[in-house]
Amino acid sequence: MIRVTLKGLAGRKLRALLTALAVVLGVAMVSGTYVLTDTIQKAFDGIFSESYEGTDAVINGKQLVDFSSSGRATVSAELLDEVGALPEVEAAAGGIIDLQSNSNPAKFVGESGKPLGGDPTFGIGLDSSQLRFTPLRLVEGEWAKGAQQVVMDANTAADHGYDVGDTVGVATLGPVKQYEITGVTKFGSVDSIGGATIAVFDVPTAQTLFKKEGRFDGISVAAKEGVSSDELVGAIQPLLPAEAEVKTGEAQAAADSEDTNEGISFITYMLLGFGGVALFVGAFVIFNTLSITVAQRTREFATLRTLGASRRQVLRSVILEGFVIGLLASVVGLFLGLALGKGMNSLFVAFGIDLPQAGTVFATRTIVVSLLVGTVVTVLASLAPAFRATRVPPILAVREGSTLPRSRFAPYAPYVALGTIVVAVGALGAGLFANGLGTKSVLLLLGLGVIGLFVGVALLSSRLVKPLAALVGWPAGRLAGSSGRLARENAVRNPSRTAATAAALMIGLALVTVVAVLGSSLRNSAQSAVEKQIDADYVVTHENGFDPFPVEAGEAVTDADGVELASQVRFDQARAADSEVDVTGIDPTTISRFYDFEWAQGSEGALDRLGGDGAIVQQQFADDHDLSLGSRFPIETASGDTLRVVVRGIYDPPELDQLLGALSVSQRNFDASFLRPRNLFTFVNVSGGETAATTDALEGTLAGFPDAKLHTESDFVTSRTKEFSTLLNLLYVLLAFSVVVSLFGMVNTLVLSVFERTRELGMLRAVGMTRRQARQMIRHESVITALIGAALGLPLGIFLAGLVTEALSQFGVGFSLPIGTLIIFLCVAIVAGVLAAILPARRASRLNVLEALQYE
Amino acid sequence: MNGKESAMETVLIQKEGRDGASSTGVVSAKDVTRRYGEGDTSVDALRGVSLEVVSGKLTAVMGPSGSGKSTLMHILAGLDRPTEGEVTIAGETITELGDTELTKLRREHIGFIFQFFNLLPMLTAEENVVLPLELAGIKPDPAWVEELTGKVGLKDRLSHRPSELSGGQQQRVAIARALVSRPTVMFADEPTGNLDSTTGGEILELMRESVTSFGQTTVMVTHDAHAAAIADRVLFLADGLIVKDLGRSSAREILAAMEEVSRQ
User: Fold this and answer.
1) How many CB atoms are closer than 10 A to CB B156?
2) Which of A48, A212, A565, B258 could form a disulfide with A257 if both were Cys (CB 3.0 to 4.6 A apart)?
3) Is B60 in contact with B220 (CB distance < 8 Å)?
4) CA distance linking residue B258 with residue B264, whole number of Å
5) B118/A397 touch (CB, cutoff 8 Å), yes or no
6) Which of A756, A762, A782 is nearest to A294 (CA)?
7) How do the domains of chain B map onto residue ranges?
8) Is the CB of B120 less than 8 angstroms away from the CB of A303?
9) What pLDDT, on a 0 to 100 scale, did the predictor assign at position A347?
10) Region label for A308, one of left (φ > 0), alpha (ψ between -120 and 50) or beta (otherwise)
C-alpha cells in the first residue's frame, strides 16, 4: 500500500507539486524568520561580546532611567586615576561610548546637507593609546586626534563614497561642523551594524561635543596577570560613587544583550505569527486539493477495496500522501527560508528598520521546527479527506458515475458552522471587552476566536456560494456572454469545493481588511487628537519625528526674521513612583498660545504659577498616583538628581498621541535638573501665517541642524502617523504571503476541475466553443471564485476591525472605513483570479478535442 | 501443467477442509431480494433469488438489461447488501458481516474481473498482479507469480504500465490479479464488454482455461451469448427472478433461450 501511495503521488507530479506549494511558503516564512532573527541575534551578540573582549571589568554610570534620551549617568575623570592606581589593575581607559541609547548622537552630514546613513548615530570618544579595550578595528588610516578629526565606520564610508583624507560634516548636540576623515573603522567581526553609523573622535573632542567635560561614559579595566575578573571587580567596588557600578566584562556583555534580545524575540514572534497565518491558509488549500483528488480517485479507492484493502489501509494511504507532500514541501520551504530571511531583511530595511547582520545562522532548531510544523500542518489538513476516502464503498468500482455518499454528519454541518461562529464571536467579545483578563488569555481568546470565525464562515460558505456567485458572477455573464454564464454555473456546480477555495483567499483578504480598517481608524483618530491639541503655523521636530533635537536648532528658528512667537518644549524621561515617566519642559509664558490645555483641575493660571517647583500633570497620571492640586512628589532624573515638584494643574489630553509628557515642568526647572536638555518640539507662529517663502526662510535657518525638521501644521499632523503607515505597509507585505498561498489554492482547484471536465470541455469545443472562449470561461470561473472570497473576506475583516475599534473606543479610537483601500483589495482579488486562471485556462484551451472526447 | 493442477487442487481441498463445506455450494444465495428506493418510486431489482454456485465450475448469469443480473453478482460478491435473504461464501454468511470481516473475506475468498479492467495506472503490470497479496500483507511466491503471468501471456509485458497495454492485455493483467490469491470464487462483470470480439474471444478462452486447469470457481455476468457459451452452467434472469437454468450450451442454444426469456 505504501508503494501504491508513493507511486500514485509520483504519477500525479503536477498535482502534488501544486499542493506542496501551499505549504512551502508558510514553512519558508517560519524558517526565514528564524534564520533572520538568529542572524541578527548573532550580530548583536558579536557586538556585545566583542565590545568587552579585552576587558576584565567595566565601570559605568548606572542606568537610572530606562530609555532616557540623555543616557546613563557618567563617571568622573578622577575615578580613572584612582582605578589605574590599584595594584590589581594592569591598564584602564576611559571612553565616551554608549551603545544602549543614542545619548551621544553624531550624525554624518554630506555636502548637500543631507544626513548619511540611518539610526542610531553613535558618537564615540576613543582612547587610541589603549586599543586593547575596543572592539573597533581600523580598516584604513589612523585614529582621530584633536578637534578637527573623525574616523568613519566602513559601511557609511562605502555606501557614500568617503575615503581617508576627505572632509565630512558631523552634527552632534550642536550645529554641523566639518571634520577631516583620518581613518575608516569596522566593528569587530560584525558584517553590518545595520542602519547605525559610528563616528569616532578622540576622548577630549567627544567630551566637548557631548557636553561630558571631565567625565567618561565608562572606564574599561584590564586585570594584572593572576587576578580574576571577580577579584578585580571586588577591588574596584569601594572606589565607586553611588551612581556608578562595576561589572565583569562578561556580565556587562550579557546585560547589554538582554534588552536587544527582548526586541528580537518580539520580531521573531511577530514574523512567526504571519508564517502561522500563511500555514493556516495553506492548510485550507491542502484540505481542499486533497478533497478534490480523493473525490476524483473514488474508483481507484473502490477498486482497492474490492482487492482487499481495508478502510485503515485507505486511510493510511491518504495520510501518507499528505505526510510525503508535507515533508517534501517543508524541506523545500526550509531552504527557501534561507533566501526569504534575506528578503525579509531587505524588506525591513526598505521600511526603515535596518538591523545588524552577521554570517547567516542556520540553527538545528530552525530545521526541526520548520520540518515539523510543515509536515504536521499538512497531515492534519489531510485527515478529513482521508476519512472521506475510507467511506468509498467497494461497489463504486463497478458503478459508473457514482458520487461519494454524504457523511453521516453532513446534515449537521450548517449547525456546526453556526455554532462555531457563535462561540468564536463570543471568544472575541470576551477577549476584547471582558475586564481583568491577563494578556495571555486575551491573546489566546482572540487567536482562537479569529481562527474559529474563519473556520465557521468557511464551513458555512458552501451554502453562500450560490447566491454570492449569482451576485458577483453577474458581470461575467454580461461581459463574456455564454462562456461567462457557463463560468458562473461551473463555479456553483460543486459549492463546497468553490467555498473552500474562496475561503483560503477570504482569510488573507479579511486580515488585510482588518489592518486597513484598524489602520485608518487609528490614523484618523490620532490625527484629529493632534489637531485638537495644537495650533501653530510651524512645528520643528527631530528629523525622525520622535527623538529630541538640539536646543540650538529651536533657538535659531525663534530668532529668525518674521517669527512672532515661538515656544520650546524640552523632553526627557525620569522616574516617578518607581516607573518611567515622560517629562516635558514647557515655557509657561508662551505654551498656551500653541497648546490647548483641557483643564480638569486648575486653569490657565496654573501656567503662571509653575515657577521653580510647579508641575502640570495629565489626568491619568494624577489618577494613577492619587495626585490633586497641591500634591507634592519627587521625580528622579537620569543624572541621579531628585526634583521635588508640586501639582499646579491637572489637564485631560486626548487619549491618543499626547504631545506633552505625563508631567510638565517649567523650562527653567527642566534645564536645571536634566542633563543635556534637548527639544521635542519647537512651535512657531509667524507674521502673515504660513507661506512658501516663510517656509523656505525658516528651513534656511535650520540648515546647520540636519537633525531638526520644519513642518507646517498639516505636515506635522500627518507626520505623527508616518511610522504607523510604514508599519501598516509592512503588515500588508507580510499578509500578502498568505494571499499568494490562497492563489496557489485557486490554481489547484482550477487545474483539477479542468482535468475532471476534460470530456465536457472536449464536447464544448466540438460544438463550437473557440479556444478563446474556453480560456475566458475558466478565467471568469476563477474571478468569480476570487470575488466570492472577497465578498466573504472584506465584510468579515470590517466586522473584526469594528469589534476592535469598539473595544478601543475608550482610548479615543473611532471607526473609519478606508473605502479606497477596500476597492483596491477588491481589484487585488480580481487580479488574483485572473492570475490563478492563466495555467488552467491554457490547459483547457489546448485540449485536443478528439482525445478529450475519448478520455475515460 | 500437472504439477500446477495438483497444487491448485491442494489449495481447494485445504479451503474446503477448513470451511467444512461440501464441494458444492461455495457460494449460495437464499431468497435474496433487493429493492432500490422507497415508496412509489421503489424498484425491485431482485425478487427472491436462490442459487448454489458449484465449486470448480464456471457459472454464467445472463439476462436482458434491467433483469437484475448485475445486482445479483454485486450481492453475491458482498459489494451490495440484499434487502432480504442471505448469502454465504465458503460457509460464511456474508450478509451479516461488518466492513472489517468483509475485507478479510475479500482477501481470502474473492477475486474480481471488471468490465473496465480497473487497473491502477501508476503500477506496472506485475505490481498490479501482486497488489491483492500486498494489501493482505502476504509475500508473493515468485514461482507462482511467474507461472500465473506466463499462463495469461504477460511474460514480456510485466514492467509495462496499463497505459502502455492494449485492452486485451489489460484484461489479462486483471485476470492474473484475480487469480493471484487463489480465491474461493472469482467474479467477472462483463469481462469482454469493453473489448472487440477477437480479443474478447481470447479472454474467454483464458477464463475457460483457468476454470478447467485450476478448477477456479467462477461467476460471470454477461449479456453476450458467445461469452456464456464457455460456461458450465447458464442462469437466466428476468425481472429479478431466475427463469432458466441450463447446463453447458452452445451460443445458438443460449440465444434461443434468451429470446424465449424475453418473450415471457
Assistant:
1) 8
2) A48
3) yes
4) 10
5) yes
6) A756
7) 2-263
8) yes
9) 83
10) left
How many other C-beta atoms lie within 10 A of the C-beta of residue A544?
Answer: 17
Query: DSSP letters along A5-19, please?
Result: HHHHHHHTHHHHHHH
Instruction: Read off the pLDDT of residues A234-244 as tens digits, 9 standing for 90 and up.
Output: 888 888 888 88
Spell out where A287-409 has E strands: none
Question: Across all residues in chain A, what is the average pLDDT?
Answer: 87
| Residue A176: strand pairing partners | A171
The tens digit of pLDDT for each residue in A677-688 reads 889 999 999 988
> Cell numbers of A470, please?
449569482
Q: Is B74 within 8 Å of chain A by CB?
A: yes
A663 within 8 A of A631, measured Cβ to Cβ = no
- Give how far Cα A61 sits from Cα of A69, A172, A218, A736, Å: 15, 21, 7, 46
Query: Where do the H-state alpha helices sit in chain B?
Result: 2-19, 69-76, 99-109, 125-136, 142-151, 167-179, 197-214, 225-228, 251-263
Locate the chain A residue with the closest alpha carbon to B136. Answer: A308
Chain B residue numbers with beta carbons less than 8 Å from the beta carbon of A305 are: 103, 106
pLDDT tens digit string along B192-223?
Answer: 988 898 999 999 999 999 899 889 999 999 98
Answer for the pair A162, A133: CB distance below 8 angstroms, yes or no: no
User: Between chains, do A308 and B103 touch, taking CB under 8 Å as contact?
Assistant: yes
CATH class of residue range B2-263: alpha beta
A389 closest CA partner among A319, A483, A471, A337: A319
Q: Measuring CA to CA, which residue among A441, A448, A443 is closest to residue A426?
A: A448
In the predicted model, is pLDDT for residue A441 greater than 80? yes
Kindly state the average pLDDT of the residues A321-344. 92
A307–B112: do the CB atoms touch at under 8 Å? Answer: yes
In this predicted structure, the answer to whether residue A848 has a pLDDT above a threshold of 90 is no
Residue from B134, B161, B175, B189 whose CB has the most chain A CBs within 10 Å, to mutate: B134
Q: Which residues are registered as beta bridge partners of B113?
A: B188
- Single-letter residue type at A110: G
Residue B136 touches partner A, C-beta closer than 8 Å = yes
pLDDT tens profile A351-360: 777 777 777 8
| pLDDT band per the 50, 70, 90 thresholds, residue A401 | low
Q: Enter the pTM of the model.
A: 0.81
Which of A1, A305, A393 is opposite residue B134, by nearest beta carbon? A1
